[in-house]
Here is the input.
Amino acid sequence: MKSLLQKKSTRNNLITYGAVIVFYAVFQTLATTGSLKSLYKGLLVPICAYVILAVSLNLTVGILGELSLGHAGFMCIGAYSSVIFSLATHETIKSDFLRFLLALIIGGVCAAIFGIIIGVPILRLSGDYLAIVTLAFGEIIKNICNVLYIGYDSNGFQVGIKDSSVQLAEDGKMILKGAMGASDIPKDSTFTIGIILVLITLFVVFNFVDSRAGRAVMSIRDNRIAAQSTGINITKYKLLAFTISSFFAGIAGTLYAHNYSILTTKKYDYNTSIAILVFVVLGGMGNIRGSIIAALILTVLPEILRGFSEYRMLIYSVVLIAMMIYNSSPKLQGIKEKYSIKRILDAKKRAKALGENEKEAE
Amino acid sequence: MSFISYLISGISLGSIYAIIALGYTMVYGIAKMLNFAHGDIIMVGGYAVFTIGITCGMNKWIAMLVGVVVCTVLGIVIEKVAYKPLRGASSLAVLITAIGVSYLLQNLALLIFGSNPKSFTSVVSVPMIKLANGELTITGETIVTIIVCIIIMVVLTLFINKTKAGRAMLAVSEDKGAAQLMGVNVNGTIALTFAIGSALAAVAGILLCSAYPQIIPTTGAMPGIKAFTAAVFGGIGSIPGALIGGIILGVIESLGQAYISSQLADAIVFSVLIIVLLVKPTGIFGKKINEKV
Amino acid sequence: MSMALLETKNLGISFGGLKAVSDFNLTIEKGQLYGLIGPNGAGKTTIFNLLTGVYKPTEGMAELDGEVITGKSPVEICKHGVARTFQNIRLFKDLTVLDNVKVGLHNNYKYSLLDGIFRTPKYFKTEKAMNEKALELLKVFDLDNEAQFLAANLPYGKQRKLEIARALATEPKLLLLDEPAAGMNPNETQELMDNIRFIRDEFDMTILLIEHDMRLVSGICEEVTVLNFGQVLAQGETAQVLNDPAVIKAYIGE
Here is the structure.
């Protein structure tokens, strides 16, 4: 019976990988044959980035059960660190692919390091306080990126928080210009790379969830006190989930930033954090495949429906409220405990299986 | 002299934070939820006064009254429609819903009023005071804000300690179940709390838009979050805590803006929030809450 | 006397000046089945919380197998060999029955994060061993054919049993059961008594349990301690203690 179950979760994951690959094959063909409008073509890389963001945030919100309102902050760190790297090495590293590979690693690792630095102190908190602190960190990161001036010349790098504090020699070049951000970024992101990154993210997250560490994380979500009495190190596993989540947010930030020639903090603010949260909530907390579908639909839909974009955020907010009340209201579901579709489906299966068992016994 | 003037504008800004923080602290104390949309009620109050007083050209007192009534009703409606069905649900669900409400209000305002700032005419007609041979000026808005804040604090403290409804609030915040058994109308008390909190938010909105005379759909968002910081700083659930937390935060922001960097002012305020939550999550006057095992 | 597995000396805790438990002395021998009884609010669960590190005692200490455990964190105490169940059941409700037990096995069956992500042979080997061990434990409680269902959907009595299975999975020396029979019907209680005896005999377990069901206490506990208002009222052989007039008075009142 158990082997059947394992096959089932593996099969589910394979279906998800397969769907991503089919999606890639279809749209890559459409794009190369020119049957895809350039408007949609431009969406392909952002879709990949948003899928990665949604899947990685689902790790924090759905699997760990803590609300992060600063996911865009980690995306921002990934974007800025990798763009600085790409601009600084634009002339020295000739291979676009190699440079972008390194940029991705730098973006992800920088975001993960910040995840650890931030996570160590704040993960002692939980619930509302943790949510508000992640929001605060996201805003601080954005604020700092907004005032950063970075340039380099033959004498090396210079960093400052004022225009005047970076004085470059004749051969110098500015990389970041405060609120103006960076420009002339090499557009290294492609749909193919984006899809590969989506698959890597899925691979890591799926396998993480279905492992010893993933179980520990979910046990903390379900009952913190029971988890520690069962010998689970709460801080360690919270930090682990949070760090992996930050790492992929950094990867997504790198991918997203290298799709445009200009980088400012505008796309990495609180609104983006909320948009990603909407993907996760709409797709179902803890449901990775749902996150992917929600991210895809909610990125494409506003572009298809003209004039809809004005109402986009309005509809997001209504969706958020309606979904939460529908899914979590103790009154709507009769009993508080039986709130989730997952549980109801499982109860049905259980009743069916046990009913059959009883028949066998007879 | 410039230091004193920054200090005074900090206290004035802090007084506004304190009034907003009161709403947060009361709702958190009684409904045990972080009402993320509280800041946006400030914005609604601002727009209501703007529409009645400036677009329709009515008397400013009528405009302010309408603003307060609109926010009070809005607060009660939000509680009934969005939060009440979730009573007893996980705090994650309630918080996400509150974020949804906050977004809904902001985007409704965006559709109705557009993203361009509307210029707001100050409702204050108190003249400014010049001190120290004109080196130090205190605006009428600053004076009114501080006085209003003090009046609200005193009246609210009296209300909670001396009236039946106020004591019912205290009872519900201590133990909802026990209060219900003792005959307290819990639903009514929670609705009243939202009503008072939202009315205060309207007052804060009017003062905020008078001091910084323009209004956009996100006007309430940042002050809202900062006021929450103030409420946490002072200790969630504590009225004097909200006052002291608000003023300290306002002063930090004002001085940070003046002496460190105006662009980093928000970052400084948020750093304070993080430090407070890490060092003393219960705030200055807060009580420790333990989960029963 | 070196056979004592658990020994507490003047253990106590006060909350804001109010003494919830004071001068609590208890010695449990290896392999004993020991009962902790007393009226509601006597401080029984508080003692479990002190022994598992959920609360830090304000006075006294507790030793497990000669090592001081008081002051340690719940995780460390679990690793030292104390496992417990909860009065108000605390399962991992959105995990399967099997995974609930596998969380209990966490510290005894290890592979690294990278083994897990890259699915190395070690991952498969360890997971297989974990599944076998978990099913073996579930079988004790007749839960093995419900392994793949969510814990939330088990009926109440089975949830209590699953909690015991999860606690056993941590391979404890001392098992603390907080009202294991609460909410069970007489049949289920009878089954549970058999289960508890079986665990003691089969796993060489030492068990301390809190219970209100006197049939269960007198049926399986060799010794009991009666707690009243945070203090020990009586201690000794079960039959003797339960007939003590002072104990009867504490239960029934004047």
In short: The radius of gyration of chain B is 19 Å. The mean pLDDT of chain B is 88.
